[in-house]
Amino acid sequence: MPTVQDRFQALIKRRLQVEIERHPPLFPWETEISSYEPDFADVAENGWVPRSRVWMPELKKFSLPAPIPENVLSQLLDACSEAASSSLKLGAKMVNAVESLFPEESGALNQLAGVVLMSPPRDSSPSPQRLPSIGISYQEAAIEQKMTLALLVAKEIINSLSWPILPTQTPTERQWQTTAGVLRVRAHYQLQAPVPSLRVVADFPQGGSLTLHAPEASTVSQRSQPGQLSVEAFDIEPNQSYCLEIQFHDSQQEPLTFAIFPQVKVERL
Asked: What is the mean pLDDT of residues 59-63?
C-alpha cells in the first residue's frame, strides 16, 4: 500500500541519518574523522564576501565613535562612489548614499545630515584624534545612532572620493590604503594651449587598470605587474565630473572610483 510504503521509506531515511550522524563516513585515506579548514579564507562565516574588500583598509582608518561592520562599510563605499560624482551638495550626497540602509527614515536622515555636516573633518595628522566613543557596537546602537554613524562614514568616504582640482604647475595627490599596499594617484589639470587637459598618474601596488571617463571618450591603461600607469583626457570642461576607475587584476572586487572636478576657482562641493 502506498501509505505503508511511504512510512517505511521515511523510517529508513531517518535511521540512515541517525547512523551517519553517529558514524560519519570516512574518505578512503582516513582512519579517523578529521576536521578540515575552509579552502577560501576570504569567505565570511555566512558565505558573504564584501565586493569592495580590497579597498577596506583605508576606510578602517576613519575616526569614528564606534567600529562599523565590514558589510556596512562595503555597501556605503559602493553607494558613495555613485553619489560622489553627482552635482548635489555634500549633505544630499550623504543622504543618498545612506538611505538604502534606512529606507523609511528619509526625514530623520536629512535632519541628522545637517548635524553631521557640522562635525570636524577627519584629521590628516599622523595621530588623529578619534571622536568620542559611544561605548557600544554598531549592531547594539539605536536606530538614530546607526544613522548618525552611517552618515559620518558617508561624509568621510565622499570627501575622500571627491577630488576638486585647480590648474596648477604641480600635480595634486591622493593616497588610498588597500589590501595590496598603498595606492598613490596624482592628477594634473592644465589650461594651456592647445586644449585644456587632465592627466592622471597612479602607482599601483599590484597589477591593474586605470580608466578615465570623459564625455566624449574613455582612456584605459593597464599593466600586469606593480608599477605606474597614466591616462589623459583633453577638452576638459571645468565644473564637470570626470570619473576615474581603479581596478586590481586577479580581483573580483568593485573598482575604486574617484570623482575628479576640474575647477578654475575654488568651489565648495
From this structure: 88
Q: What is the distance between the alpha carbons of residues 55 and 180, in angstroms, rounded to a whole number? A: 9
Evaluate whether residue 48 is within a structural domain.
no
Largest Cα–Cα separation, the chain: 93
Query: Strand 197-204 and strand 181-190: pairing?
Result: antiparallel
Whole-structure pTM value: 0.76
SS3 category, 105: coil
8 A C-beta contact, residue 186 and residue 148 = no
Percentage of the chain beyond pLDDT 70 is 73
Same domain, 177 and 145: no
- Using alpha carbons, list the distances in angstroms from residue 24 to 16, 18, 28, 174, 184: 11, 10, 13, 55, 53
Peptide bond into 194 cis (omega under 30): yes
pLDDT digits (tens, 9 = 90+) for 199-217: 999 999 999 999 999 988 8
Alpha carbon distance 251, 242 (integer Å) = 24
Confidence grade of residue 97 (pLDDT, cut at 50, 70, 90): very high
Average pLDDT over residues 51-80: 90
177 plus 157 within the same structural domain? no
- Domain count of the fold of the chain: 2
pLDDT digits (tens, 9 = 90+) for 111-158: 999 999 987 665 444 444 455 566 788 888 999 999 999 999 999 999
User: Final residue of a domain: which of 102, 131, 161?
Assistant: 161
Q: Are residues 62 and 126 in the same domain?
A: yes
Helix (H, G, I), strand (E, B) or coil at 63: coil
Number of Cβ atoms within 10 Å of the Cβ of 36? 5
Beta strands of the chain (E only): which ranges?
Answer: 162-165, 172-178, 181-190, 197-204, 208-213, 218-223, 227-234, 242-248, 256-262
Domain boundary among 161, 190, 220: 161
